[in-house]
Amino acid sequence: MDELREFVSSLVGFESTDGAEAGVSAWLADRLDEFGFEVYEWTADGEVLAGHPSFPDDPGDIQTADRPSVGGVLEFGDPAAGPTVVLNGHLDVVPADEQRWSSPPFEARWHGDELTARGAADMKSGLAGCVFAARRLASSDRDLDGRVVVEGVVGEEAGGVGAAAAALDNPYPFERDAAIVAEPTELTPVVACEGSVMKRLEIAGRSAHAATPWRGEDVLEHFQAVRSAFEALAAEREQRVTHPLYEDFPTKWPVVCGTVEAGEWASTVPSSLTAEWRIGVAPGETVAEVEAAFDAALDEVVADSEWLREHPPAFERFSVQFEPSAVDPSEPVVQAVASALREHDAGDPEPRGVTYGADARHYVETGIPTVVFGPGSIEQAHFPDETIDAREVETFVDVAVDAVDDFLRSQSSR
Question: Which CATH number describes the domain made up of 2-192+323-410?
Fold first, then answer.
């Protein structure tokens, strides 16, 4: 376990923000090679990703150069007689504002068993746990058939660049039968992830001196009408769209206007406005159909306004989109995780849903049953002084070892 903590400390020392993962990818590839894994690397093809609904349509808007993802493979017994399970983690982290941290965010700071650093919870500790779980399986005398793949992928925070590439164009010379994505779930199996669509609203008005506002057209009034319509639709969806794993959330399908920019001068009627929205998509829905519902709500606002009819606002996608994903809780990989949790009396073995997206959706879309399961809490993700308890990471290793063992045995053809 000391070696595991040292491994995590090294991982969080890389400032591997979006597009800057090359250094940590190379380091992980070297470590996997030293540990006896067969190492694979792949770089996403922007042309291929542009055809995927999660990504912009223009390949030039998708950063893929110098962003290799890494996979390490360990084989057991007769690999062809058993299944292949992927243990997945992402190498990228969100930026850190050092002024809001009590210590340098890209230096491991230990307080007893607690590690503070950017990526400690989201999700370099989970990735390290995957590496050490696979190593423990390989060093044991368990009679197993099959393969374990440990993946460190890039660009998860930007839509899943590395995972999408691996799902769309298998980088390995064998098929994959199941996956565990080690996002921070507080050691609870997650079988449903919410999706989201990002939309940018642009409204044009007419400027005028603040002393004669009647000569202008204030965009804020039109924005408020749009926002009220979206709030009404969001409230209606909260009542109409249901899912058994989401009924305990205060807001199941969040709709948030995250940025608003309007006007140019305090003494001028604001004549332009740009607002960006993040709209939740429930498991079982599609991004396209939820997007269409909000487009229709906007159309109704426009139809009621002579100004907006003559000056139609733009409401377009931007950034990346997250399709929702769900897997049947009866899938063997989910049951293997739940069984191992019960055996170790750890975490919560009851599957649940979450209101965020994860790389799991890319594997689920290609027919690979995937459960999201890892140490740490999403409440620490993207926060200053991001912290995880290493004892939970160590428990994750114990549980993952037995879960993979169970899965390989139950799905073996021998």
Answer: 3.40.630.10
